[in-house]
Amino acid sequence: MATCGGCSFFVLALRTVCGQRQARPLLTQAVCSSRTIFTSTRSYSLDSLSSGSRKAPAQTGKTERTSPSLGLPQRNLSAVAVSLQGQCRPLCRYDLLDLGEVVENTRKALTCRSLRRFIVEPALARVVADHLAPDLEDGKAVIFECNPGPGVLTRTLLNCGAQRLVALESDKSFLADLQALESKLDGQFEVVHCDFFKLDPIGQGSMKPPAMYSEKLFSDLGISEVPWSADVPVKVVGIFSQRNERSMLWKLTYALYERQSVFRYGRVELIMFISEKEYTKIMAKPGDYRNYQALGALWQMACDIELLHKEPWSSFVTTSKNGGMAVPRSSIPNDHLCLVRITPREDFFSSALTPSNGGTLVMMIKQCLAKRKARLVDRLNSWCPGSGRDLMSKMGLYEDVVTGDVHPDEYKRLFELMEQSEQFTQSWLYEEILENTKNTGCV
Predict the structure, then answer these.
(1) Which of 81, 129, 294, 312 has the fewest CB atoms found within 10 Å of its own CB?
(2) Least confident window among 63-77, 161-175, 201-215, 371-385
């Protein structure tokens, strides 16, 4: 049937306004609220089809949008979308950031010269974002993303409603793209040339990025200290560096127990990928003399630890000298990276356990669990001469119990009882602390 030119123009304009478009089967239609992906090709796009029956919400100040199933608030994420306001085509509800092609994101990741792992698959990024859904919905905490690289997880978090996301990137080669994204958004995304794992290095003096003092980082971002009992102010998301994973965990342990570094600002939560080997050790229980060690006991004592997800090493892009996955050898299962949520307990500190003596407790646990088949009463007598039996009696512990059979909360209670004892002496600690200080170069 023939139609006039004016009618054809009207029909075309109407389709444009309603957001109807022809289906694009060669593109992946990925939306954070959906767990289904179509991979006809390796091109991933978040420019989803919008229904012609939906109308654009009224624009009042900073637009907030809602993910259809998660109910996550989403602000203006696209400069292009902002520029379309007031024009013929209203802002599409699903006009989200494009995650890019996996091949291109992989190419960018492989430009990194140091040993690192990257998330380049949108499906994996979405898994992480799904586990952060309550955090994104709450919107109270600032989210630090450690070493985002190509930014696939970055864009996914923004698409899922992150209200304030800070990218801490240590490699200069990734900064330009991240800063370009920052310039397009409405203040909910910031980029800092910084390595989270190099915050607060030992020593004093001027500091050059990516090393940085946490005081400067938090001050520049306008994040203030809050009481320990307050809500979590910052959530840190990322992948622990394989090169110094255990050292970093120890560094964070001391910072937590003494409320230094990032923990000076409150109960900072870690949502991080760690190796399956380290996760197994951290979660080991008393009686497992091989894996139950001081580091795990200290984290269990201070924090709630939740395993969110396990992902094979092969799901990550790894930059290594030999081009392989660089999976460290281990005598215990180590086939995955584990996404773990570590939340410091609100009631961890008490009148007897404070940041001023938290370091002493760390040293005590290290001494106890260095030999996990040693008698606990002998260790207690070395700290509190002649009081070992009395302390154990108050705790209801048998006299012949060994250190590797004592639970983390029992160690905490023993320490609090010793702190209240007149016989408690820390003289044995001074020499070891001084020795550690010399080894780290503080004196």
Answers:
(1) 312
(2) 63-77
Radius of gyration over every alpha carbon of the chain, rounded to an integer in angstroms = 26
Instruction: Kindly report the CATH number assigned to the domain that includes residue 249.
Output: 3.40.50.150
Q: Please give the sequence-ordered ranges of beta strands (E in DSSP) within 328-429, or none if there are none.
A: 336-344
CB 33 within 8 A of CB 68: yes
Comparing 277 with 429, the larger pLDDT belongs to 277
DSSP 10: H
405 is in an annotated binding site: no
CA torsion sign for 398, 401, 403, 406 is: negative
Query: 236 and 194 in contact (C-beta within 8 Å)?
Result: no
User: Tokens in use for 311?
Assistant: 């992902």
Q: How far is CA 33 from CA 42, 138, 157, 160, 413, in A?
A: 20, 16, 12, 8, 45
The annotation status of 195 as a binding-site residue, yes or no, is yes
The residue that leads in pLDDT, 187 or 259, is 259
Integer Cα distance of 392 and 180 in angstroms? 61
pLDDT in tens, 48-96: 333 333 333 443 333 343 333 334 443 333 333 333 333 333 323 356 8
pLDDT at 113: 87
Last residue of a domain, one of 344, 370, 390: 344
57: in domain: no
427-437 pLDDT per residue, tens: 455 445 545 54
Residue 100 contacts by C-beta under 8 Å, 6 or more apart in sequence?
Answer: 44, 150, 152
Residue 48 falls inside a structural domain: no
* Cα dihedral: 305, 311, 315, 318 (round 10): 40
Domain presence at residue 105: yes
169 marked ligand binding residue: yes
| Domain end residue (candidates: 284, 309, 344) | 344
Whether residue 415 sits in one domain with residue 314 = no
DSSP 353: S
- Whether 238 and 367 map to the same domain: the answer is no
